[in-house]
Specification:
GO terms for molecular function: phenylalanine-tRNA ligase activity. The protein is of the alpha+beta class. The chain has 11 helices and 9 strands. A 7-stranded mixed β-sheet has the order 1-4-5-9-8-7-6. It binds phenylalanine.
Length: 337
């Protein structure tokens, strides 16, 4: 038995085979164990001799088994270590970093410019009341200009804000009678528009408001020029066109020169050379008075900018819908690493 077992043991190369070997030669049903059980049938004089031989064989096999076990464990460990070795000469795998969304990027950049001019940044509710979205902005219930903004109503009094201008009123009510008021309010607004290349039912506005003594239209223009140059470079031009808003008087729409302009083929400005990016004007005296600022003493200007428009111009994106489709081919271009 011993010779057979030892020969077999030499060929064993893994733990599983070693376990089988142990069961076969030393286990409960092994020949060895069988022999021990038969010992009872022997003459008393033969027992010690027989028992001793059995023990010797068993001990010898146990010892061999143990050696083999240790040898195998060592071999397996070194094989594992070999397999786990890191090849430092392999090329690295690049981690997948996200990118800031172009709209968030533009908002941050614009915030930076206005922070530099001493503005505070504020946030307002997207679900607004009729009072702040319209009435306090000089748009009473029967005012025809309400048709200008197709509104998502929630109840008769509650609606999705159609612009960030309600924050003009909320800010003034909070700060009155402190001056100067200088605040910038980025946020999402909602309109019942059909979505197309330049319209979206939800988009982003950035409201600006300045109130103080002796604030004039030229301050509005200077502020916007400063902003335009900071975002688009020293040579960016700003064009004011007369317009109308019930909450500003006089009112102006503001265009920027199309910096993406490829003349005939320009998809960003549709060959006009200019892009309208905001509505603005001198805060209407009634709006000042309703919000707690004496209009015989204070004046102010306000503007509401389309963040998507600014981003379209800055990054040459011809379709506003691309901002909301989360297409990685677009978004990954804004990765900074
Ligand atoms: N709220 C206006 C709009 O959404 C823009 C605007 C803001 C105009 C502030 C004048 C002053 O079209």
């Amino acid at each position: 038995i011993q010779t057979e077992a030892e020969t077999k043991l030499q060929d064993i190369a893994d733990t599983k085979a070693l376990n089988e070997w142990r069961v076969l030669y030393l286990g409960k049903k092994s020949e060895m164990t069988g022999l021990s059980k038969q010992m009872g049938q022997l003459e008393a004089s033969e027992k010690p001799q027989f028992g001793q031989s059995l023990n010797q064989v068993r001990q010898a096999l146990e010892a061999k088994w143990n050696d083999k076990r240790e040898a195998l464990a060592a071999a397996e460990q070194s094989a594992r270590l070999m397999a786990e070795t890191i090849d430092v000469t392999l090329p690295g795998r690049r981690a997948n970093f996200g990118a800031m969304h172009p709209i968030s990027k533009v908002i941050r950049e614009i915030e930076d410019v206005f922070l530099g001019m001493g503005f505070l940044i504020a946030d307002g509710p997207e679900v607004e009341t009729d009072k702040y979205n319209f009435e306090m902005l000089n748009l009473p219930k029967d005012h025809p200009a309400r048709d200008m903004q197709d509104t998502f109503y929630i109840t008769e009094e509650l609606l999705m804000r159609t612009h960030t201008s309600p924050m003009q009123v909320r800010t003034m009510e909070r700060l009155a009678p402190q001056v100067p008021v200088k605040v910038l309010v980025p946020g999402r607004v909602y309109r019942r528009d059909e979505d197309d290349a330049t319209h979206s039912h939800a988009f982003t506005q950035i409201e600006g408001l300045v109130v103080g003594e002796g604030i004039r239209m030229s301050d509005l223009k200077g502020t916007l020029e400063q902003f335009a140059r900071a975002l688009f470079g020293e040579h960016q031009q700003v064009r004011l066109r007369p317009s109308f808003f019930p909450f500003t008087e006089p009112s102006a729409e503001v265009d920027l020169i199309c910096v993406q302009c490829q003349g005939e083929g320009c998809r960003v400005c549709k060959q006009t050379g200019w892009i309208e990016i905001l509505g603005s004007g001198m805060v209407h005296p009634r709006v000042l008075d309703m919000a707690g600022y004496d209009s015989s003493r204070y004046t102010g200007f306000a503007f509401g900018m389309g963040a998507e428009r600014v981003a379209m111009l800055k990054y040459g994106i011809p379709d506003i819908r691309q901002f909301y489709q989360n297409d990685l081919r677009l978004l990954s271009q804004f990765a900074t690493i």
